[in-house]
């Protein structure tokens, strides 16, 4: 009887060790997969094709000069402006018309009660 109990304990110990080892290997594989996904990706940089002719010289820069633009820039104008009398357009929502308000029904709410304050707490 004692031999049978010892055999069961040895088998249970062996199964627990096998299960623990399998869990350890699975965890290491999971960590390895996550680290593999996090590795830096190679970046590709586009390069202009090399031309056979000599590169064009840059334009002369003059101090304080202006940059030529084609077409010339236009001043900014606010959007939604349809009158030309020089007034700025109104923005935002207009107040609701009286026809947009719900009808008044029932009695108005009573006044809120005044705040009550207790006398100060006496220290003993």
Q: What secondary-structure arrangement, pairings included, does this model have?
A:
Layout (H helix, E strand, L loop, with lengths): L1 H36 L87
What does this structure look like?
- With 124 residues, the chain is mainly alpha-helical.
- It has 1 helix and no strands.
- The protein has one helix at 2-37.
Give the SSE order as H and E letters: H
Tally of extended strands?
0
Any idea what the shape is?
flat
How much strand? Answer: under 5%
Number of DSSP helices?
Answer: 1
**The biggest beta sheet, please?**
none
Structural class: mainly alpha
Uncertain stretches: none
State the oligomer: single chain
Question: What is the helix content?
Answer: 25-40%
Structure, briefly:
With 124 residues, this protein is an all-alpha fold.
Structural key phrases:
mainly alpha, 124 residues, 1 helix, 0% strand
């Amino acid at each position: 009887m004692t031999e049978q109990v010892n055999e069961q304990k040895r088998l249970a110990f062996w199964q627990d060790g096998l299960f623990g080892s399998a869990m350890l290997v699975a965890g290491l594989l999971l960590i390895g997969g996550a680290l593999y996904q996090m590795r830096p990706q190679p970046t590709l940089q586009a390069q202009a094709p090399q031309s056979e002719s000599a590169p064009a010289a840059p334009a002369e820069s003059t101090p304080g000069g202006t940059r030529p633009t084609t077409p010339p820039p236009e001043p900014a104008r606010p959007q939604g402006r349809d009158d030309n009398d020089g007034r700025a357009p109104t923005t935002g929502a207009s107040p609701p018309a009286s026809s947009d308000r719900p009808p008044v029904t029932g009695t108005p709410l009573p006044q809120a009660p005044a705040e009550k304050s207790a006398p100060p707490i006496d220290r003993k």
